[in-house]
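Practice problem. Given the sequence and the SMILES for zinc ion, write out the predicted structure.
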Amino acid sequence: MQLIDIGVNLTHPSLLKEVDAVIERAQAAGVVQLVLTGTTLEDSENALNLCLRLDAGDALFSTAGVHPHEASTWNAAAAKTLRDLASQPKVRALGECGLDFNRDFTPRPQQERCFEEQLTLAAELCRPVFLHERDASERMLAILRDYRDHLPAAVVHCFTGERKALYGYLDLDLHLGITGWICDERRGLHLHELVGQIPVGYVYVDGLAVGDIGDAALKDRRILGEEGFISILVAVEMSTRKVVFGPEITARGFTDDPVALDPIRKELISVVEQSLAEGVRDADALQHIVRRTVGRWVDQTYRRRPMLMPMVVEV
Ligand SMILES: [Zn+2]
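Answer key:
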């Protein structure tokens, strides 16, 4: 069987050293084409460059777009850059673009504006769109109804929704990407029945982040939950309002890259010290701040939600 993976996050930093091996493994498993996902302008450019560097034929393609998490970066200059990127032959779709009301990293009106302008661009350039939607199917359907006739094709990637949303998307003649979520016994079981309702030719393998961690991390992940585990230890001195130890961040089943979590350490110190300066004195409240800061960063950087265990000690 020939497979096409339409959602590969091959530009992920943890994969940089492994890109060739991932492609080789994918091809050995029968994946004949991979579409690399662009989530920011920079990422979209990286995805395009990877395609150009590694493939002279028609095995690798990419998308270019601004993810709803990044909608606050959207402006006229971004629109121009995206237009240039989207005109490249290797770039086959606009996206990821869409709405995420689950995490609401950007205010909803901003998400909608960023989304609609990308739809307008896709219609103008006659490009398909690669859509991201979490807990926002009603708004997404309402917006898409206005644009659908002007778009050549559209796929809702990583579909995890309910029957009503699925039928709404199928009514608009959209395609659906199904990820490993369908194997998740806690959250994905409802998809077993739904996926059979998607007509042949409308359902895609959506790799998402398949292949971006190795066997060692996967082994841990089975023990500690599917998205890994991160513990954070910080000691603060209340009198000086300073971080005096840490943050010591330990990850299991999350990544094979020993320095992957380094960037968040520095940020965490300044967030904690700023909270102390603003008068937060309670370790529980600080723990909450630590969890939120790390969770948000991990989600934005890796699009994963591991189990987080923050511990703030007062000295
Ligand atoms: Zn997405």
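Check your answer against the key. The mean pLDDT is 88.
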